[in-house]
Amino acid sequence: MSFGFSVGDFVAVLQMANTIRDRFIGAPEQFKAISNEVTGLSNVLRDIESVQSQQELTDWQKNALVPVLKECHTVLVALGKVVDENCYLKPLNSHSFRDKSRRIWKRVTWEPAEVQELRSRVVLNIGLLSAFNGSLISKVTLGTKDEVERLHTRQDMRERHEEHQTILDWLTPIDYAAQQQDFISRRQAGTGQWLLNSDEFQTWLNTDNQTLFCPGIPGAGKTILTAVAINDLTTRFQNDPGVSIAYLYCNFRRKDEQKAQDLLASLLKQLSEERSSLPDSVKSLYNKHKEKRTRPSLDEISRALQSVASAYSRVIIIVDALDECQASDGCRMTFLTEIFSLQTKTRANLFATSRFIPDITEKFNGSTIFEIRAHDKDVRQYLDSRISQSGQKLLETHREEIKTEITKAVDGMFLLAQLHFESVSTKKTLKKMKDVLKNLPTGPKAYDYAYEEAMKRIGAHDTDSEELAKQVLSWITCSKRPLSVSELQYALAVEVDKAELDEENLPQLEDMVSVCAGLVTIDEESSIIRLVHYTTQEYFERTQRQWFPDAQTNITIVCVSYLSFDEFKSGICENDEEFEQRLQLNKLYDYAAHNWGHHARQASTLCRDVIEFLQKQAQVEASSQALIAVKRWSGHRKYSQNVPKQMTSLHLAAYFGVDEAVQFLIGSDNPDPEDNYGQTPLLWATMNGHEAVVKLLLDKGAELETKDIEYSQTPLSWAAINGHEVVVKLLLDKGAELETKDNYGRTPLLWAARNEHEAVVKQLLDKGAELETKDNYGRTPLSRAAKDGYEAVVKLLLDNGAELETKDNYGRTPLLWAAQNGHEAVLKLLLATGEIDADVKGSDGRTPLWWAARHGDGAVKLLLATDRVNVDSVDRYNSTPLSIAARMGHRDVVTFLLSQSLSLTVKDNFGRTPLWWARRAGYPYIADLLLEKYKENGILIQEDDLPTTIISVPSDESSGYCDICVLGISEEDSYYHCRVCNNGDFDICEGCFTMNAYCLDQSHTLIKK
Ligand SMILES: [Zn+2]
Ligand SMILES: [Zn+2]
């Protein structure tokens, strides 16, 4: 459709809306909302149509309407696709002459996230069109500039809304709402009420700063009860904007996407979502990282989280299944520490569940503990409803007996009710049923018995069903991440040695679940197919050899067969649209490309299919595109082209560390093919830490010193960046160059120090790496480690005699960096050397004490205790530490400095005294302290010089701050930026700028932002 405005275009959009509206008729419940909204859209378009058929629109009006119509058109096209994907055509039925091609809605296979996004776009368009329609029918003069501007304002609102969503999705794409929906939908009405009614819950609910810890044995029903609690809380507080609720469902299957950072980012997203406008701290986090394509650090996220949380009168955080949060690499403990620290700072309420794990339980000492066990009443109610749903006469007649026996066996483990019922309900004679009821296993071993029992039932099926069940179970158990329903359907439909997928081969969803004897379930909202419980996964991990010994090999074969399809013969997609379409159409493409190699690495032998796949260059490139392309935010353009081209089979095998494939491929070939980014297989293998492959390649004489084109990094740089110790050793043993510098001017040692890889730092030092090497910013390994507060690395470098007084391009020593960033422990280590200049000044004239006063921490006392610092030292702008502490509102620091300071009333270059700042920043208690001291010393104050209004300073440090007065700059305020000073990170707030403040060099140009 070509859009200028024409009546034809308008009518076409209207018709399209009507068509889509009609196509939603008969759609399942999940599509109710979107279906209603499309009807709304069609109505408002019809209204406008009827007005505009009677009066010619003005040019203004037409211009305003065009973008809205365009957007409607795009949304409707997308909705049409959704309908197509979720319907199939029922074969013609000769008896039914009315519906020539009847569309039948499929049950589950739809992408809720996509639909939600479309919904919000439809709603916004309805809003815009209604506003427009309002202007048409009002008796006020038509087509004035005003109305059109109003419409534009609405459009701005829409754009802002979209931008906000982009930022929130950038924080984390993961959405726990779908899981909440799935869990709560499994609850039988009324069950779990006992938790809500309990004194423990009620007390927790009615008091702030409380923690309710609910441990329970496996299968007690913790997750469903968590869902019940969340449901209660969100309903209770839905109309209270002062209360914010955020929740997480930890899941061992998602440990890659549930690192401490991710979990906190998700809380940050949820708390931010509820604000009417996006919090500054979140926006600035995004702006800071977007261009450099970096991710925020744990520290940054947790500061932003505190700042956003403190804007609510009450924050409630719910975390289910802490035991499933990864314990290795300290993820779980880091997360808990952060959560508790958030609680201390914001008096948040915390609700958490877990299995009994001493490390976790210990952390909740002093909290209210409330054990979760399945209640008999709930179990009976659950069984009642299962029996009624079954429609089986035998079950109906023996309802009481079944309920009584199963409830007795359950003993607090709700999951057993579910498993036992499955086992009882398949019995066809009363005798067999009674036998089962009499011998229901109980106690801790009961799950294993129940799972074995289920496997026996599967074994008793016909061969096809048994085969299907084992495939489903092996895929779900061994997959590297949760599988969507359609991914698994496609995986099961793959025929080895075929060039394409035969859709007639797709198994029915109902069958996939029913053949698995109650061990598998579908989360409809999330479209995920999974095992019924964590214990089921544990069972299969223990018994995998018995039930599906060749699972890894089989999955590998399916993945590579899929990736070898003719569909991918055209190689890399040339643009994002084409790439996304490929992903959309080929449901297993994403999973197979990301994971074939992981499965191949775990398979017992290298299979022929892998080699065959690797010999198809076009398919290899297509699969590397899906492997490497990452869409980082919703508007991220050309991301699909941001991937290395000409990746060879050797690259791919090295990337995944499939050493047998590497061995096969390497043969007599060149071990160093380069992709168009100049990357060799060795570079990929070192980056990902695949020792065996690194060794193979090195033995074949792979080049040690290749540098990639983009960053000039060598294999050793990459191993150091990612902290792969063994690989570092292999490379060093081969004599890899230690001092090679990349485009950032960083050597491997600098990288290891920067990324806190202590062991690698040690290895490199032992090999004699240069300790005083400097990057492009003039920073040494010690200065990098001090800047980020890496205590252990700092210590190691100090033990090796690192230079203490080295200065970077802005005159900052390691001590200054530690002080500037508030790393007290590192500051202490550095001071303990005894030889350090504790009063050193950077280019901005600021001393460690000056910075310590800004952070308000114990560092102030540590520094003053050295007797080597000037308490009244001023910076380039004549600000004293006292003045900084006053403007930051640090009462203790002000008190302490007042006891030692001699220059109580010194003015900065802009005439601002400590008292001026205390008044200006709104800290009356600090002002009182100062006034008292003035009085003692007989100092008179000129009230006229003092500000009468308070500035509002964002309390949060993660948004930018003014490099002159060091107070935060709020997003709404304009500020001035120097592109040179502090490596291009120098900002001046409006307040300082109007007082003629300038950056470090008067000749620089400041840019207003
Ligand atoms: Zn300022
Ligand atoms: Zn400058």
TrEMBL record:
Pfam families: Ank_2 (PF12796), Ank_4 (PF13637), NPHP3_N (PF24883), WHD_GPIID (PF22939). SUPFAM superfamilies: Ankyrin repeat, P-loop containing nucleoside triphosphate hydrolases. The keyword Ribosomal protein does not apply. It comes from the Eukaryota. Transmembrane segments: none annotated. The keyword Electron transport does not apply. ANK repeats lie at residues 677-709, 711-743, 744-776, 777-809, 810-834, 844-876, 877-909. Residues 190-355 form the Nephrocystin 3-like N-terminal domain. Keywords: ANK repeat, Repeat. Residues 464-543 form the GPI inositol-deacylase winged helix domain. InterPro entries: Ankyrin_rpt (IPR002110), Ankyrin_rpt-contain_sf (IPR036770), GPIID_WHD (IPR054471), NPHP3-like_N (IPR056884), P-loop_NTPase (IPR027417). This is Related to 2-5A-dependent ribonuclease. It comes from Phialocephala subalpina.
